[in-house]
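Example record

The entry below shows one chain as it appears in the dataset: sequence first, then structure tokens.
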Amino acid sequence: MKNTFYIFIVLMLFACGEERGKVSNDLPDILKKGKLSAVTLENSINYYSDDGDESGFDYNLAQNLADHLNLDLKIVVAKSVDEITEILYNGRADISLYKMPTTKMIKQNFIVTNVEALSNMVLIQPLSKKRAKYITDLVDKDIYVHKNSKYHKRLMHLNEEIGGGINIKFVADTLGVEDIIYAVSKGKIPFTVADNDVAELCKKYFTNIDINLAISVVLPKAWVVRRDAPQLDSAVNEWYANLHKTSYLNRMQKKYLEKSNYFDSFSIAVPRGKISSYDELFKANAKIIGWDWRLLAAISYHESRFDPNVVSSNGAVGLMQLMRRTAANYGLNDSTIFIPAENVKVATKYIAYLNTKFEYITDVDERIKFVLASYNCGYGHIIDAIRLAKKYDANPNIWERNVAKYFALLSDADYYNDEIVKLGYFRANHTLRFVKQVLETYKSYLGK
């Protein structure tokens, strides 16, 4: 209740500010700027980054809207629903492409568009005969969610409704909702909570979970715009009505709501006999750096799915997704970079170089995490995170809950504006997931 009250006060203060002559930011102003700024949360349905490629059902709709209006699209990623409201009010975004619950407070402070859906929250639990069937079955149970998230708030209200007893536990902000659901499917935690649409998508990939216990009523949710943007609202509604006359919505629903490449890296089926057609390359090169060859294979799987011809939207190439500039430093050109043997050879040399940068980390398993992160996003961002870890008395030689914590905070202005941060803003979610999933895949390849 405290957080809800705080947000209510924030909204009222902003509303008062608008009445005192706040500059409008409606469609004519947006068209003049040539850019539509959209705020969202990162998840498998709304928006996510896959090896630099921006994806997601709502992201693609927003891109279609921006193209329709002849605008560039800028994505602002928030950490919570509360932060979305603040970002919209302070003018850092024009529209929320994360569908907001259309509560009385939301309707009072925003214009609700026609881009809407129905949703409720459900419990995620292991599929078993002993699963919880009623809300009261959750007494004395541990349910894991992000602190101060809408799921946390719903569980607090639920505790009030049933007289207490639900043990609310918190997970790291670096984990996505899907990561937490995956942890339930792997038996690492007993329960979590998610929106039913995310839960239904996850269920298609994590088949050993149960999502049948609703813990909230069904409510409409929708894209919203600022109250000073009625023309933008009209333009969105007109565009959306016309979109229904095409096949675009159906195509996006099949692509993102019936299945999603977001989950490609979660469940790894280890082939019998060999992992890939390039196992001998991985074996030969891994010896050079003293790594298990299956770790190189795991990197290749997550970087390219073992496709030697793939080129990402940010220009990474081949089996190991080398950047052309890095490859050129090791003698490759635009043709030879695609040759699997050359691509893996240079990637291994680059890994060896990164390994020397972290030689002072004596725990080899820890050092590998730093090397993997640097390989994925660049050495400089990891050094920025290490500087922050040192400043705030975290252990600069430990990844989890130490350097990884401050790496995630490189998207927070209070941290990336620090003078010790040399490369500035960085959204770390993809790299954090990359490190975690490469190591999980490696363990799968080992048969652990």
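Notes for this example: Residues 316 and 323 are 5 Å apart (CA to CA). Residues 121-210 form a domain with the D-Maltodextrin-Binding Protein; domain 2 fold (CATH 3.40.190.10).
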